[in-house]
Design brief:
The protein is of the alpha+beta class. Strand 6 and strand 7 form a beta hairpin.
């Protein structure tokens, strides 16, 4: 690992070594990202009920965690400054999404396509009809008529699960809901700032230890992945959004349970040379950022339930472990 000689690598115009100078390409990215940040969409129309106001300010984003995924662009650690914003206290629930559908008649991507992806151990017993294995990913099934209101397939329902996070949601579905609610999706920087809960450079929203004192604080996989989830945290599948304690900002479910869509297009390198004031992702791409991990994350396969972990998916992808929450700018 490079020894830090002055400042944080990635700070504007602060190279990690005295001999280094910004390249023309780096300067171009910085100029473009500053322009995008200054023109980012502001939304102040929606209600702030059920939201938490965060004051923003300057904090550290990213990680140099040796147990992380450098190829995902988790680093470098850099100082980022954000304007104040409101953020949903919880991921959007089935009950909340139902209100949107009832008001607008909206049909999700999964409903229009007629299928979505369900993890093998979430299928109801005997569910064989309309279930297709996914090539190269033996634990996933493409399930006909699986969607947000039938999360485990056509024979499942939302009865008793109104407070679970809505899933089988494509990025475009999340964006449609946010616009209806007078809100928007969080930038990746806003999401990470919120998830940290006021702590600096900790692995999780509550500190560096996954299960302090043996206590489970999020819904992830225990046991042998992908064959058996022991459910030691109380759940072997989705759980209600308020099942675990809030972080220091009073936000629930920022780690585990469901991945959450962010506004930004994905890049593993853009942020290394981008603006540090209200940063946004690159101007385009073919994948969107998702954050937070899910109930399917396990240390042996994907420990991306860490606060600084990041990955992506195509905007029209839908699955049983991906949802979202919204933000709103401060008027």
């Amino acid at each position: 690992m490079t020894k830090r000689t002055h400042g944080l690598p990635g700070d504007p115009f602060v190279p990690p070594h005295p001999c280094c100078v910004p390249s023309v390409e780096h300067a171009r990215i910085l100029e473009q990202s500053e322009r995008l940040s200054s023109r980012r969409r502001r939304v102040t129309r929606g209600s702030t009920e059920g939201m938490v106001r965060l004051d923003g300010g300057t904090s550290l984003m990213g990680t140099d965690d040796p147990d992380g995924f450098p190829s995902d662009g988790e680093g470098p650690v850099r100082r980022v400054t954000l304007a104040p914003f409101h953020i949903d206290r919880t991921p959007v629930t089935n009950r909340q999404f139902r209100a949107f559908v009832d008001a607008t008649g909206y049909r999700t991507v999964a409903e229009r396509l007629g299928s979505s992806f369900v993890f093998h151990n979430q299928l109801p017993p005997g569910a064989d009809s309309g279930v297709s294995p996914v090539a190269g990913l033996s634990w996933w099934r493409d399930v006909r008529r699986a969607d947000w209101c039938h999360p485990r397939g056509p024979d499942s329902s939302l009865d008793g699960h109104g407070d679970d996070p809505v899933v089988h949601i494509a990025w475009s579905d999340a964006e449609a809901y946010a616009r209806w609610a007078g809100k928007r999706l969080p930038t990746e920087a806003e999401w990470e700032y919120a998830a940290r809960g006021g702590l600096e450079q900790k692995r999780y929203p509550w500190g560096d230890e996954l299960t302090p004192g043996g206590r489970h604080l999020c819904n992830i996989w225990q046991g042998s992945f992908p064959d058996h989830d022991t459910g030691e945290d109380g759940y072997a599948g989705l759980c209600p959004v308020d099942a675990f304690p809030p972080n220091g900002f009073g936000l629930l479910g920022m780690t585990g349970n469901t991945w959450e869509w962010c506004e930004d297009w994905w890049s593993a390198t853009w942020h290394q040379h981008a603006a540090r004031w209200n940063p946004v992702g690159p101007p385009g791409g073919d994948r969107k950022v998702i954050r937070g991990g899910s109930f399917l994350c396990h240390d042996s396969y994907c420990n991306r339930y860490r606060v600084a972990a990041r990955t992506s998916n195509t905007p029209e992808s839908t699955m049983i472990n991906c949802g979202f929450r919204c933000v709103r700018d401060v008027a």
